[in-house]
Specification:
There is one protein chain. By secondary structure, this protein is an alpha+beta fold. 48% of the residues lie in helices and 13% in strands. The protein is built from four helices and two strands. Strands 1-2 form a two-stranded antiparallel ribbon. A hairpin with a 5-residue loop joins strand 1 and strand 2. Helix 1 crosses helix 4. It is globular, with a radius of gyration of 13 Å. The two termini are 22 Å apart.
């Protein structure tokens, strides 16, 4: 993902029933990025497209992450969510 400083593979599939499936791959030496991907996967994988698109951009602050990680890293997580939403919109047609 060009928005991230860490190499990240991110793919989104929207099934015929509008169920979203997420696929991530990040290097082992990037534990924060891997953790963010895991949070997004746990929270969004298997939801309907409309639910994913309704996820608020500021959801990371609702988790209290701003107290634990830098704003730069949170922008990376926000970029992952934005990419997921963009791919969902593109696949919905």
């Amino acid at each position: 993902m060009p928005e991230c400083q860490t190499p990240l593979f991110l793919a989104v599939e929207v099934g015929p029933d509008q169920t979203v499936h997420l696929f991530f791959e990040a290097p082992a030496e990037a534990p924060t990025t891997r953790g963010f991907a895991a949070i997004l996967h746990a929270g969004l994988d298997g939801l309907g497209a409309a639910e994913v698109l309704a996820t608020p951009a500021e959801f990371s602050s609702r988790l209290g992450l701003q107290d634990l990680v830098s704003p730069l890293r949170l922008r990376g997580m926000a970029a992952m969510l934005a990419r997921i939403k963009r791919q969902v919109r593109n696949q919905r047609g």
